[in-house]
Amino acid sequence: MMIEYLVLISCLGFLAFLIPGRHRKYAAIVGWVFIVLFLFATLPEYFAENNFLYPVMAALSVPFLYITIKHLLADDLRVHYLSRAAAIAFLIYFPFAIDDYTQINGLGTWLIGLVVGQVVWLLQLFNYPVTLDAWNIIARHGFRVEIILACTGIQSIAIMLGVAAAVPTTTRQKIYAFLLVAPTIYILNLFRNVFVIMAYTGQWFPYYPDIAGNGEIGYESFFWAHNVIAEMLALVLLILIAYGLFTLIPRLGTFAEELFELYYGEIVAAFGKGGNRGPGPAPAPAEPGADQPAPDVRDEPAKNPDAGS
Questions:
Q1: How many other C-beta atoms can be found within 10 angstroms of the C-beta atom of residue 132?
Q2: What is the mean pLDDT of residues 267-290?
Q3: CA distance 87 to 17
Q4: Under a CB-based contact definition with an 8 Å cutoff, are residues 238 and 155 in contact?
Q5: Cβ(186)–Cβ(156) under 8 Å?
């Protein structure tokens, strides 16, 4: 449970960043520090699942955090916009995640139940009958898959909507960005869950147990379906959605280029091959609120087809 509180503190930091005042850069630093701590705190879980994408992200987050803090303290507008993207993402995500910190079944529980019902319906549509071992556990052939909040797509939706809100936009751009991001990710994530469940419970990929196995019977199929195929397809999808956002919001594409130049320039400078290639630090606006966008069962452990799309 302590791990979840790292996310909560990060969330509170980013939400405080949205409140105008001199504290904003320090609030953003709190947000970034604790989200990086969360990545490292969850490493044992991902290593147990043979998932190496998130450990790589954790390793890369260290230089990212250093560069981000350095430029936040310098009032660089680029990292100001980046922090705003993270803050808006948390603003969208937190109402669904608050169930983890209370005894109340709120939006998160509702969303999980909605996804479970729709996934079961799709499986039946594909003539692949399953049973429910619990309200959020789908079973077949003795293998079980647990649907948790990370399996609903809400994290990816929040992140991409946060990205869309990083720079000032018009009302029309906000509406089009939402229509591009939310329905697309939600619907494709349903099919992602269907694929993982069918592949795992049907044992489609029982290959290379030395690489994919973790000692559990049949885990190899879950590894290849969830940790490799679904993750790669989700990455491709997010890249395509980002391209669509850059088309809808040209300033966002320019912002992405500026961020790349900033972080790449800092990394190159750290290895003594040159200086910061990006434009110099730009001061953050004193009152950014005015231009800020609105926000037969065998007892096998259940698997979580978590957050991909």
A1: 13
A2: 57
A3: 7
A4: no
A5: no
CA-based nearest residue to 306, from 160, 182, 156, 92: 156
Cβ-proximal residues to 78 (8 Å cutoff; 6+ apart), any chain:
71, 255, 258, 259, 262, 278, 282
Question: 181: helix, coil or strand?
Answer: helix
DSSP string for 206-242: ---HHHH--SSTTHHHHIIIIIIIIHHHHHHHHHHHH
Q: How far apart are CA 51 and CA 56, in angstroms?
A: 10
Provide the token pair at 145.
């898959």
Residue bearing the bigger pLDDT, 46 or 145: 145
pLDDT score, position 297: 42
Per the CB < 8 A criterion, the answer to whether 9 and 20 are in contact is no
Which amino acid, 2?
Answer: M
Nearest-angstrom CA–CA distance, 246 and 256: 9
- For helices 250-270 and 231-248, angle between their N-to-C axes, nearest 10 degrees: 120
